[in-house]
């Protein structure tokens, strides 16, 4: 992945006020505990998603199901930079985000299977899940809608004068939606504490970035609104953490929004029914073998002798058990009671 | 235990597929993510990836097999220390499908949480009974104590007073929109609010309806109570995705955990000579959406009492005003806290010969028509709906039971109009009480023309209302 820092252009100086120039920080230095935490958190997402794919194949999960495999370092690294009360919102590739927000794997998986123990009582599904308790604001099925909503979360933070930051995730595809720029404008105008995290996984469904975007450097998409941005190696959890720390500090200091373009990659198709014919197998294989976010941490853990193969296997077992438990729950928990048809429409 | 690899469903509607190719052979080591086989669906050839680690012990369905049903075991994966005999044992054990704990219930009558399959035709005998929609209990209007001073107030002032009172009462209430602050409101509805509440709570937005509607909904999801003013509801079409998909559906999609306590308000419908793009009534549009409440007042008192209720309501509310009504004066009771119930129609005038139902500016035609009809000796009952959703059918039907005749008047387009919906419900619920077909009067089925004479023709008129009442009472 491109790791070279690209300086945010600070050329527009008509009124003499230059934009802050930001540089991509070097990857964070992780302690043993941080490496292990990152490894475990990413592994949980990976195994959860693999299991979700399997349950989809068995017909337990219906409709659309978008897996996060390959992109785990993005939410995991960002999460390590947050404090209590910071909000998160994203689109429909949201399972990893919820696990990173410490939402229960059982609750998420049971929502995927449409059961009453799911986060939305089975009424939302893969794309529409929320947790007020964990400050997760969805889970949105309309590409780009979460960008305005996430800006609204930041508006509420500023209105209340608290210190919290809204983490608003969207993809390279959503980055071409008009409301993204409407939101950028207001966020910058009102100095709202929002981090726009563009997960550039190179394909908007099946259309590559170069085929859909006139400016493929998404970190520059805020220039017209004086929003600084940087490109980050989204496959390296340490790089993400360092960028997250910087962005969070930028927002908490009252400097307004910031854009982090996370250069990442999704291994699976856009959704379960996508055969991914728009890219070569070699491209996918190269990314998996050379840049896998989990393998990178694993290699470092072993090299530093912070963990043995056996210890990592035990960790893997522990994670698999959590996922298996979630899957069992999601298959055995009853469907919602028919009376739920008419609940939760109005308060 | 060896792990069975099942024929996967690879799309929301797939029931079977062809096993095109085995990429791995028996005895091959398999890691999670490895492609093990290729499967042809009706749409595409898809790769099947291994989920678990192990050795491919036995292939159960040969390459080239067509029409393999979803969830049929296609291979057995051996885990560390297991050998091929375990594989065949597992395959045998699975031949007559046993139900293991944690597996989908295969019993008849259990959907097992699976998606509705294409071949499942809805059938009355098989489908579970649909629970009845719960009945909404809506309180009556508050009593106005005898001797309460009535203050002549314009609709414009009433709306401003409602917002100011609620903003004084609740720090979480704020207003945002185009020109609401410095300009004092494009139609002067927010006059004085900036001076009283400051720029933090009276927020001028850029001209960016889609964006600021979304920002408002996001702020509401975070627990604030935004009032979003659209300069007109015609511009809210830019924002309709956030109104419908983000605001109206969130409570349901979140299983009740969070919703959007927000009011979208502004002038709706035709004003005067502003032509097609600025002259459209959205009552029927938003009335269609579960998860919204839709309010459309006529009088200043209703405007005030219902806007206060809307701001306090925890649900997303569409509050449809009308530019022509803004300057009209009505009596408003001088009370400390005058709040009206959303979802309750108001009997504007009692009568016995026919019922006329209308709402918002439609009421202006009805009120004038009533005077003419009175001259003809016809005593009509007038119902002002005030709320389009939830619609107060009880009040309408009670009236129809008394008068046996119904005319509905609105300015919106005729197809799928509010009046059509009322006519349909009255037919279903009070057919035996009708002595004449229901007549629905709406705007004409044309984009609003600019020319003064054509505009007048496109809107309903008093004569049409009079003729309709004469028709349902057989007085022609």
Automatic annotation (TrEMBL), chain A:
GO terms for biological process: pyruvate decarboxylation to acetyl-CoA. CDD domains: TPP_E1_PDC_ADC_BCADC (cd02000). Residues 41-338 form the Dehydrogenase E1 component domain. It catalyses: N(6)-[(R)-lipoyl]-L-lysyl-[protein] + pyruvate + H(+) = N(6)-[(R)-S(8)-acetyldihydrolipoyl]-L-lysyl-[protein] + CO2. GO terms for molecular function: pyruvate dehydrogenase (acetyl-transferring) activity. Its cofactor is thiamine diphosphate. This is Pyruvate dehydrogenase E1 component subunit alpha. The pyruvate dehydrogenase complex catalyzes the overall conversion of pyruvate to acetyl-CoA and CO(2). It contains multiple copies of three enzymatic components: pyruvate dehydrogenase (E1), dihydrolipoamide acetyltransferase (E2) and lipoamide dehydrogenase (E3). Heterodimer of an alpha and a beta chain. Signal peptide: none annotated. It is an enzyme of class 1 (oxidoreductase). It comes from the Bacteria. It comes from Neoaquamicrobium microcysteis. Keywords: Oxidoreductase, Pyruvate, Thiamine pyrophosphate. InterPro entries: DH_E1, PDH_E1_Alpha_Subunit, Pyrv_DH_E1_asu_subgrp-y, THDP-binding.
TrEMBL record, chain B:
Residues 2-78 form the Lipoyl-binding domain. SUPFAM superfamilies: Single hybrid motif, Thiamin diphosphate-binding fold (THDP-binding), TK C-terminal domain-like. Its cofactor is thiamine diphosphate; (R)-lipoate. It holds the Pfam family Biotin_lipoyl. CDD domains: lipoyl_domain (cd06849), TPP_PYR_E1-PDHc-beta_like (cd07036). Keywords: Lipoyl, Oxidoreductase, Pyruvate, Thiamine pyrophosphate. InterPro entries: 2-oxoA_DH_lipoyl-BS, Biotin_lipoyl, PDHB_mito-type, Single_hybrid_motif, THDP-binding, Transketo_C/PFOR_II, Transketolase-like_Pyr-bd, Transketolase_C. Residues 87-148 are annotated as: Disordered. Residues 114-124 have a biased composition (Basic and acidic residues). GO terms for biological process: pyruvate decarboxylation to acetyl-CoA. It catalyses: N(6)-[(R)-lipoyl]-L-lysyl-[protein] + pyruvate + H(+) = N(6)-[(R)-S(8)-acetyldihydrolipoyl]-L-lysyl-[protein] + CO2. PROSITE patterns: BIOTINYL_LIPOYL, LIPOYL. Heterodimer of an alpha and a beta chain. The pyruvate dehydrogenase complex catalyzes the overall conversion of pyruvate to acetyl-CoA and CO2. This is Pyruvate dehydrogenase E1 component subunit beta. It comes from Neoaquamicrobium microcysteis. The lineage of its organism: Bacteria, Pseudomonadati, Pseudomonadota, Alphaproteobacteria, Hyphomicrobiales.
């Amino acid at each position: 992945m491109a790791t070279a820092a690209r300086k945010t252009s600070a050329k527009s100086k008509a009124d003499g006020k230059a934009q802050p120039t930001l540089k991509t920080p070097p990857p964070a230095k992780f302690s043993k505990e941080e490496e292990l935490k990152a490894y475990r958190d990413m592994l949980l997402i990976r195994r959860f998603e693999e299991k979700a794919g399997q349950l989809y194949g068995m017909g337990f999960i219906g409709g659309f199901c978008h897996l996060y495999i390959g992109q785990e370092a993005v939410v995991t690294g960002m999460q390590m930079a947050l404090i209590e009360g910071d909000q998160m919102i994203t689109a429909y590739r949201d399972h990893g985000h919820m696990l990173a927000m410490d939402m229960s794997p059982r609750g998420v998986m049971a929502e995927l299977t449409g059961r009453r123990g799911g986060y939305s009582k089975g009424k939302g599904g893969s794309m529409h899940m929320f947790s007020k308790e964990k400050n997760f604001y969805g889970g949105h099925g309309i590409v780009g809608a979460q960008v305005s909503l996430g800006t609204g979360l930041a508006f509420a933070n500023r209105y209340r004068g608290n210190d919290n930051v809204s983490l608003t995730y969207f993809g390279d595809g959503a980055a071409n939606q008009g409301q993204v720029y409407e939101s950028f404008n207001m966020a910058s105008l009102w100095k709202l504490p929002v981090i726009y995290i563009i997960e550039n996984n190179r394909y908007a469904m099946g259309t590559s970035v170069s085929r859909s975007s006139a400016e493929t450097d998404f970190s520059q998409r805020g220039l017209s609104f004086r929003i600084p941005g940087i490109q980050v190696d989204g496959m390296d959890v340490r790089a993400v953490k360092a960028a997250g720390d910087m962005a969070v500090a930028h927002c908490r200091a009252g400097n307004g929004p910031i854009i982090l373009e996370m250069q990442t990659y999704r291994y699976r198709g856009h959704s379960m029914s996508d055969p991914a014919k728009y890219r070569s197998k070699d491209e996918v294989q190269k990314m998996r073998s050379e840049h896998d976010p989990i393998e990178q941490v694993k290699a470092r853990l072993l090299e530093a002798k912070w963990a043995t193969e056996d210890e990592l296997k035990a960790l893997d077992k522990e994670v698999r058990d959590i996922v298996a438990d979630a899957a069992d729950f999601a298959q055995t928990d009853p469907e919602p009671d028919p009376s739920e048809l008419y609940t939760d429409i109005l308060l | 235990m060896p792990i069975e690899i099942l024929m996967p469903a690879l799309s929301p509607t797939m029931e079977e597929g062809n096993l095109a190719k085995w990429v791995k052979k028996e005895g091959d080591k398999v890691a999670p993510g490895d492609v093990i086989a290729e499967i042809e669906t009706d749409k595409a050839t898809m790769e099947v990836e291994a989920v678990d680690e192990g050795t491919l012990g036995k292939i159960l369905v040969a390459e080239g097999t067509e029409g393999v049903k979803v969830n049929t075991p296609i291979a057995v994966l051996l885990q560390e220390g297991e050998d091929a005999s375990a594989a065949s044992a597992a395959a045998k054990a699975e031949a007559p499908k046993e139900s293991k704990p944690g597996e989908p219930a295969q019993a008849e009558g259990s959907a097992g949480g699976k998606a509705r399959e294409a071949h499942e035709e809805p059938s009355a005998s098989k489908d579970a009974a649909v629970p009845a929609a719960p009945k909404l209990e809506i309180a009556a209007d508050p009593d106005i104590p005898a001797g309460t001073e009535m203050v002549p107030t314009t609709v414009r002032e009433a709306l401003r007073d409602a917002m100011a009172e609620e903003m004084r009462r609740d720090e979480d209430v704020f207003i945002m929109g185009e020109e609401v602050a410095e300009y004092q409101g494009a139609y002067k509805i927010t006059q004085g609010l900036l001076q009283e509440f400051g720029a933090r709570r009276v927020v001028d937005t850029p001209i960016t309806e889609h964006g600021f509607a979304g920002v408002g909904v996001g702020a509401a999801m975070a627990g604030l109570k935004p009032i979003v003013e659209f300069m007109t509801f015609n511009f809210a079409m830019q924002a309709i995705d956030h109104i419908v998909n983000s605001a109206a559906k969130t409570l349901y999609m979140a299983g009740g955990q969070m919703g959007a306590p927000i009011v979208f308000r502004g002038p709706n419908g035709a004003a005067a000579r502003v032509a097609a793009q600025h002259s459209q009534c959205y009552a029927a549009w938003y009335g269609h959406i579960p998860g919204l409440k839709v309010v459309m007042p006529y009088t200043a008192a209703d405007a005030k009492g219902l806007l206060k209720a809307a701001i306090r309501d925890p649900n997303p509310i569409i509050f449809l005003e009308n530019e022509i009504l803004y300057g009209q004066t009505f009596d408003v009771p001088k009370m400390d806290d005058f709040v009206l119930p959303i979802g309750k129609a108001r009997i504007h005038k009692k009568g016995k010969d026919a019922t006329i139902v209308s709402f918002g500016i439609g009421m202006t035609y009805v009120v004038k028509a009533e005077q003419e009809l009175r001259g003809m000796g016809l005593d009509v009952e007038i119902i002002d709906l005030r709320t389009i959703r939830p619609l107060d059918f009880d009040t309408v039907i009670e009236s129809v039971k008394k008068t046996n005749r119904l005319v509905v008047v609105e300015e919106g387009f005729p197809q799928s109009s509010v009046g059509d919906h009322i006519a349909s419900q009255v037919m279903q619920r009070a057919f035996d009480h009708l002595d004449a077909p229901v007549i629905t009067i709406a705007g004409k089925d044309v984009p609003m023309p600019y020319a003064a004479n054509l505009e007048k023709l496109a809107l309903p008129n008093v004569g049409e209302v009079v003729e309709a009442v004469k028709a349902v009472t057989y007085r022609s």
